[in-house]
Amino acid sequence: MAPNAMPESSQSPLLEDTVAGAVDHKGLPAKRSTSGTGVAERAAYFGVEMNLVNYLTGPLRESTAMAAKNVNTWYGVTTLMPLIGAFVADSYLGRYRTVVSASLLYILAMGLLTMSATLSSSSPSKFDVIFFFISLYVVAIAEGGHKPCTQAFGADQFDGEDPKERQAKSSYFNWLNFSICIGLSLSRLPLSYVQDNINWVVGFGIPCIMLVVALLLFLAGTNTYRYNVKREENKAFSRIIKVFVEAARNWRFSPSSEKAIEEGVNGTLSHQSSPKFKFLNKVLPEEGTKACSISEAEEAKAILRLFPIWSTCMIYGLVLAQSSTFFTKQGTTMDRSIGSGFDIPPASLKSFISIAVIFFIPIYDLVFVPIATIFTRNPSGITMLQRIGIGMLLSTISMAIVALV
Length: 405
Fold this sequence. Notes:
By secondary structure, the chain is an all-alpha fold.
């Protein structure tokens, strides 16, 4: 049976050695002994992104300013597309099917990019440029389905109710990023060298082949994965939109606080009604009527609480974008020669970012977290918001140093 197409038997009580809310590829309760993880390779995206500005200023003959604008626009689209991809995965396809579909689209996009590179000439035509950008934005669409689901699907393989797996899950994203950075560090130098010194057809073709291999490896683990049970309920996006619509419609009414608290206790969320954003409690306008449940109102409040994080992380996005445009072009002005006849590709200088991550993640996870846990009593050492705040501070310091240099 295909993943996410779960039989009614999957809703029956699970045995002690199974994982609540998860099933295997046959739709049966997933056992701990048959679980596994698989994350498709993302090197193809970075194989395009790391040297894109040089391709635009080289074969496509764009100015540096126009190339930087196009790269940042494309980067912005690839950043927004995961919002759509996550919605499609959560509401319709499920994470497994979304990863497979996005991987197939990714392979198609990289094939189109490789084909577009064969069309480039000393004087690219308008058709060449349009064909390239169509291929490039197909990559963005594929990234939208791939990026939000691979890491989340890997996290699904851990049971949050099991103490050992819960502890492993807390380190999962750290070591996932560690593995990705190792792969990127090993691939950036040869890929950028091929793109700059051999030809772009091979430079785009290699990531396409890597994607095919990664998809085959991902599919090979299908029988070992855990799949979340898809419950029959309204789509998350629809529920949240309905809360805001009903709250606006009932703005004249006052919610029943006793009923709200009772609903919050018995609802799907573990906490009671939040004291913040009380205007959303108007989804319970008066006794005897109920436009939405308080648990649905709490979902909408959770979204509103994310907006300060999203807005401040926009600054980090500006910092990150510089590595794909300004830093790469700055690298072309440096003396990158080693010995005689070999120049380090400017795009490969971004490997220092990955190398820094490879160096600091073991220190963070194996040294900092245990020490911080002694003082904070937090199993993760510090909270996620504290990690984000420290990262924002370090980003600000790094950009200040760049400005001074």
